[in-house]
Amino acid sequence: MFGDDPIIQTIDDLDLYKPNMQQVLFLKHRQVRGTFAMHNRTAMVRVGDMVPIEAVREQFDHARTLRHTDAQIANYRATGLYGEPYLSYLKDYALPEIELDARDGQIVACAEGPLCEVSPWETIALAIVNELYFRAAAKQSGITTEAAFKAMCRAGEETLRRKGHALRALGGVQIIEFGTRRRAFRAWQKRVLEILKDEFPDLLVGTSNVALAREFGLLAKGTIAHEMFMAYACIYGGTDEGLRASHNRVLQDWEAQYGDRLSIALTDTFGTDFFLHDMTPAQAAFWRGTRQDSGDAIAFGEKLIAFYERLGIDPATKVLIPSDGLDVEEITRIHRALHRRIILFYGWGTNLTNDLGIKTLSLVMKLIACAGRDAVKLSDTRGKHMGPLAEQERYKRTFHYDGGIDLALVR
């Protein structure tokens, strides 16, 4: 039904924020070690009972054989974002070993080593496990013949077209395809991009997937993820003062490396309120905008607009990228509230590349330890925090965090 081809066929089949962060980690913190671990937030779905561990191991082992080609290196070079020391490093780079097990009905994957080496496992491992789960779930649903599979995909295409027409009718909607980590399967992500590029070019701005951007002649889009703030907090967090200062140090190092080209900030690692308190007026003016990944997008947008206005900055010149749990209804809700007040791009993931009638997973692979310390994340949404409770409490005190919202009470 899905063919026998490997799920990951090129080493750049990942999200752009991975090489962006990898370069900074390589240049500044090459010896710092970190650990990434996979976690299924959809705990009632026992993925480990559905997907043979041997199948996961075979896919992981294949991914570790991949190397960057000259064409892929040239593609990175052409962006102007990456220096020759990092590009030379990429020529010999291979995914490091990863521990794999099935435990309590779940797939357990853990990669430990120099942070710049293990970090790319995140989107690659998630794409593999999600596709293997989707194959198993499709089989359980009776989609066991080529005809049934093609019928499902035809229905998925029609669903995508309905979404495209609905969003086009809103006017001014701009989409960045963010679906690599949660895609149903690799060929479907390609088909989604084909339809958007050919039939809805006015909606599609680009894709976060480096390989597919190269293949389709699209702009690869992405900047930074939570792991940078989490890693810096571990590296410099021996004292509360060092922990607090680590947050702005990320912005400083990022700006020094990339200037304004990748200046879209992720605000919610330790709470958006602290982020806006910690961002200097000069940084607020310099950075092009922010990405919203938890909490309520409209409340976030209102807070951001008020922040810029207090500083005398026109919010209509700044970018906001909502990227949390988007669907047509949510994009519509956000667009009607914030369009023209701030520049909107929508980072659309799961509901774009995995809407084929099979239950989707909330599967993540996050940094859990770095530089000998436990990693912590404090989300704007309750229930998405990470890290040991004692460390969470320390972070809450240090970053003056007073709790996230319950989205069930907002939407």
Describe this protein with a few key phrases.
alpha/beta; 12 strands; five-stranded antiparallel sheet; globular; four-stranded parallel sheet
Description:
This protein has 411 residues and is α/β, with parallel strands linked by helices. The chain has 18 helices and twelve strands. It has helices at 17-28, 47-50, 53-63, 70-78, 84-91, 115-118, 121-140, 146-170, 186-199, 210-216, 226-236, 240-258, 272-278, 281-286, 297-310, 328-338, 350-353, 389-398; strands at residues 33-40, 99-103, 106-114, 175-177, 204-207, 264-266, 289-292, 319-322, 343-344, 346-348, 363-370, 373-374. A five-stranded antiparallel beta sheet has the order 2-3-1-11-12. A four-stranded parallel beta sheet has the order 6-7-8-9, covered by helices on one side. Strands 5-4-10 form a three-stranded parallel beta sheet. Strand 2 and strand 3 form a beta hairpin. Helix 15 packs parallel to helix 16. It is globular. The model is unreliable at 407-411 (pLDDT under 50).
Overall mean pLDDT stands at 95
Please give the order of strands in the largest beta sheet. Answer: 2-3-1-11-12
Shape: globular
Beta-strand fraction estimate: 5-15%
Q: What is the radius of gyration? A: 21 Å
How many angstroms separate the termini?
38 Å
The number of helical elements comes to: 18
Quick summary:
The chain is 48% helix and 13% strand. It is an alpha/beta fold and 411 residues long.
Topology:
Blueprint: H1 17-28, E1 33-40, H2 47-50, H3 53-63, H4 70-78, H5 84-91, E2 99-103, E3 106-114, H6 115-118, H7 121-140, H8 146-170, E4 175-177, H9 186-199, E5 204-207, H10 210-216, H11 226-236, H12 240-258, E6 264-266, H13 272-278, H14 281-286, E7 289-292, H15 297-310, E8 319-322, H16 328-338, E9 343-344, E10 346-348, H17 350-353, E11 363-370, E12 373-374, H18 389-398
Parallel strand pairs: 4-5, 4-10, 6-7, 7-8, 8-9
Antiparallel strand pairs: 1-3, 1-11, 2-3, 11-12
Helix pairs in contact: 3-7, 4-5, 8-9, 8-16, 11-12, 15-16
